[in-house]
Amino acid sequence: MDFDLSEEQRALADTLGRLLADRYGPEARAGYLAEPDGFSRARWADFIALGLTALPFAEDHGGLGAGAVETMIVMQAFGTALVVEPYLASIVLGGTAVRLGGSAAQQARILPGVAAGTTLLALAHAEAGSRFDLLDIACAARAAGDGWVLDGTKVAALGADCADLLVVAARHHGDRRDPAGIGLFLVEAAAPGLARRGYAALDGTRAAELRFSATPAEPLGALDQGHAVLARAIEHGIAAAAAESLGVMEAMHALTLDYLKTRKQFGRAIGEFQALQHRAVDMFVALEQARSMVLLATGALALEDALERARAIAAAKVQVARSTTHIAEEAVQLHGGIGMTLEYRLGHLVRRATALAALFGDADHHLRRLAAMGGLYHAA
Fold it and tell me: Rounded to 10 degrees, what is the CA torsion of 277, 279, 281, 282?
């Protein structure tokens, strides 16, 4: 199998890398986090100009018709630079839900604005106590007149505090955890009965708690396909977050190697001590293991077999989360006390690494899922 990037994909990686190196240093990032939206609208405009927001969408909807590999390239670069703009929330999660689940009319109405970067989406599915269970949904949808309204709450909705349009998972019938009763609904940010409380997460990125009280909503596509579409959107989110984790790991590893080469103790660089060389090699092994699983997850998104796709995504999440945690812990220990300070870039990388390792389910959660599915290579 050929894992080399095409000429166009290499050009995308090079161009984005140069942009981020020029405009996304540590001081600039701190300024972006301090802006009213928690990210830079100017940098978002740069991403629009590069066509990043249009990548995964069909040309009929103003997109470029690119695939999962291009998203992987973008997210890996974003991880290395610690980008805070809501690409994962709007383009990957919200965009995938509308792209795969919306009716033709809804796609034609919504996706051109998303591809142009002028409409920000957010996916709201998690609830208090649900942990990482996509079936555990109590937020209720009920018919009201000629439409639908929502009642309930959502937590930890990525980018939902500044989104223009929300994609909300809600139960329209059945008992709690009944997959057939889960639908996806579109809710305008200015809809009556919607209360949003935005906050900064551990790593500085933005999320929100949402409260719905008889809030008008529009079903996204077919109601009975809500859970299947939600699962697909989360799979795309896991693959994208894994690629971002890879970029974070690469940055932590490079920073640690540089420190080992320059920090001196007993008259010599500490990287000359064999015990520390062994630990640096272990970090590299973990990094390459994660890289392989990111490629697996990216490729798996195109699989038609839902079970085979779910196994690959779960396995990738397990390894990437474990590698991320290992490299973060080793980087901090090899740096000593400076590795914990927020005045040093490693501290911010470790915070983002920690958040990504738990996002959409930690390693233990997905290992249990993988075991329940019979493992990655399940015998027929």
Answer: 170
pLDDT tens-place string over residues 216-240:
999 999 999 999 999 999 999 999 9
Residues 141 and 186: beta-carbon distance below 8 Å = no
Tokens of 368: 């249990």
| CATH 1.10.10.60 for the 122-224 domain, yes or no | no
Q: Look over the chain and give the mean of its residue pLDDT values, rounded to a whole number.
A: 95
Question: CA 244 to CA 71: how far, in whole Å?
Answer: 10
Quick one: CA dihedral 122, 239, 376, 278, positive or negative? negative
Q: Which CATH superfamily is domain 228-372 in?
A: Butyryl-CoA Dehydrogenase, subunit A, domain 3 (1.20.140.10)
SS (H, E, C) 204-224: CCEEEEEEEEEEEEEECCCHH
d(CA 228, CA 179): 8
Domain layout of the chain by residue ranges: 7-120, 122-224, 228-372
Q: Cα(154)–Cα(27) distance, rounded to whole angstroms?
A: 33
CATH superfamily ID and name for 7-120 = Acyl-CoA dehydrogenase/oxidase, N-terminal domain (1.10.540.10)
User: Helix, strand, coil % (nearest 5) of the chain?
Assistant: 55, 15, 30
Which residues does 146 contact at the CB level (< 8 Å), separation at least 6? none
The predicted-structure confidence for 166-206, as pLDDT tens digits, reads as follows 999 999 998 878 889 999 999 999 999 999 999 999 899 99
> What is this structure's pTM?
0.96
232: Cβ contacts below 8 Å, ≥ 6 apart: 96, 100
212's tokens: 């719905």
